[in-house]
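WP5 quarterly update. Target: 2-oxoacid:acceptor oxidoreductase family protein. Source organism: Nocardioides islandensis. Length: 197 aa.
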Amino acid sequence: MKLDVRIHGRGGQGVVTAAELLSVAAFDQGLHAQALPSFGSERTGAPVTASCRISDRPIRSHDPVSHPDLVMVQDLTLLRDPAVLAGLPDDGTVLVNTRRDLADLARGGLVMGPAQHWVTVPANDLSRELLGRPLPNTALIGAVVGITGLLEPEAVAGSIRRRFAGLGEHVADANVRLAELAYDLVATQTRGSGTHA
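Structure tokens (predicted):
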């Protein structure tokens, strides 16, 4: 059992934090995991990439994920670059932070293949409601848990609470709630349906 995730977003969206939270949750569950930031420009708004590997066996590779099982896209505009989906297999999954439906995405000139499984979650909208600003990372982590079924929601909640403990209990609680809301949006979907949440 393994899951290789590549996360694409922009500086300020918590891309590296998302990879770390997933890896800590996996580790807390007794799995092997690693988070790999891609070092480059990390200024606000600049494209940022991070990777996370999760496995029930020791992980020998320490290079960025080039053949992901799942690509998380925190900023919809990044899908104009074909490199965002590079290495994704035909049965891979793309998780996109957007309120738009799939037909609308296809008409918008964004790169839409070759992945068969597309899931959309309005993570910015959810975050604005609970945090007052668009920080999509914890919502999208919850969606990953719902899509894959690989991690326990409780493990993810624990990793979020530890990461945000220094910002106050209300911030940690809001981020856990974001993950739960996104989990609920996608957990009932049939994997491979090609539908959106």
